[in-house]
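Today's session is about reading a structure prediction critically. Students often jump straight to the picture, but the first step is always the sequence itself: look for stretches that repeat, for charged clusters, for runs of hydrophobic residues. Only then move on to the predicted structure, which in these notes is written as discrete structure tokens rather than atom positions. Here is the chain we will use throughout the hour.
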Amino acid sequence: MPYLSLSWSKTYKILLMTHQSFRNVTRSPTVAPILTGHFREAAGYAAWRPRGTSDWLLVFTTSGCGRFGTAAGGECYARPGDLTLLRPGTLHDYGTAHRAEEWEFWWTHFLPRPHWQDWLSAWPDTDGCPGIVHAALPETERSEIARALGEMHHHALSGQARRDAFAMNALERALLCCDRALLPFGGSQMDERILRARAYLLEHLRTPVLMTTLAGRVGLSVSRLAHLFREQIGQTPQQFVESERMARAQQLLERTGRTVTAIADEVGFENPFYFSLRFKKHTGLSPRDWRQGRQNAQPDPEIPNR
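Below is the predicted structure for this chain, in token form.
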């Protein structure tokens, strides 16, 4: 009985390898550049590609529960609102979870556009699951991602010209939403309540927002909101609003001919004089001087030879 001396982990791996050697390999798709689908699979559904694929696979679960196995014998479970991304060459061992009645999900095999690589490479692999990014996305992103993936699939199946390009554009929107949720400021995941508070402030830059109103909308006390917001954003809510207003004002000053009074009103200042004071505190220049400096810095347009 030679196996009696082996540890349980080694015995498990031997049994797992023996089981895997008898599994039917799922055919790998040919992707150029995108293949999409929407599945609702009952218990017993499974896919097995021991060498993975040469493309990327994104799965977004909408109902039920799925499972993803790892090369080390571990598992992670995909529940509604979960994103799962398998990198090229990663084992494909997934299916409806044990004891789950069904698993419904959007999926796409794709070859990323060059500028997507920086986003995808920045997303961290799940602990213990090399090659697999798995995350529960915040409620604030789920509906938009599902809508983008639905449009992606619609375009991919349509008979229109450039259907792959339209599908890739919709997938890019979904990936941007995922990136915003996974790395909202280039760092770790952020508290969903702070994401909601930040989004609400950005949507209401032109109107005053009381801290009591903001705290009530995200389910936090005023003191807890202030603490978490500063901890995760690096600014108080008031500082964040003013910095966003000033950034918007700079864009309008540089790219439009609107008056300083009109721009002040556009970014939420009733008093243009007070707006000018705050703008100078942020930039060191009055709005008019800042605009003039930007105009002087622009090179003269070249006149083509005729």
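Discussion point for the tutorial: The chain has a mean pLDDT of 87.
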